[in-house]
């Protein structure tokens, strides 16, 4: 059996790369990043995203070690989410373990070289296209905001179904 890993956020990097892709590369058919910051070896999410590390670390400390979920105000500014989707997220989201955004990524040399990799989202900026994740990344356009699994679920499922993995 071969698996397709779909890290939907940076915090998943602590699982998929060192624990799965590096240890069992023959079991991994491919990686699909969905509107995610791509990891850079030796950098944390806070660094890659250009966030204020001191402020975010302070927020994590004040939140018992959890990186707080988006606030109501931040969610209300999401143009692709319906009102019911925004309220759903407000009622369901919990904080990420803080270390998943403060710890630096450790990408094992060669672990990702031959693995098919896809990025699904709308931000094809040079920083994402030039990311040093090994090997090429295929880009699939989907303009659905940060949560396309809610805002564009059918379109997202169709893209994933059609990927050549």
Beta-strand content bin: 5-15%
Form type: globular
Q: What's the CATH architecture name?
A: 3-Layer(aba) Sandwich
The percentage helix is 25-40%
CATH topology name: Rossmann fold
Helical stretch tally: 9
Major sheet size, sense and barrel closure: 4 strands, parallel
Low-pLDDT segments, ≥5 res? none
As for the number of domains, it is 1
Task: Quickly give the structural class.
Answer: alpha/beta
Q: How far apart lie the N and C ends?
A: 13 Å
Protein name: Hydrolase or acyltransferase of alpha/beta superfamily
Organism: Echinicola vietnamensis (strain DSM 17526 / LMG 23754 / KMM 6221)
Overview of this protein structure:
With 165 residues, the chain is α/β, with parallel strands linked by helices. The protein has a single domain, classed as 3-Layer(aba) Sandwich (Rossmann fold), CATH 3.40.50.1820. It is 36% helix and 15% strand. The strands form two sheets. It has a four-stranded parallel sheet, sandwiched between helices. It has a two-stranded antiparallel sheet with strand order 3-4. The mean pLDDT is 84.
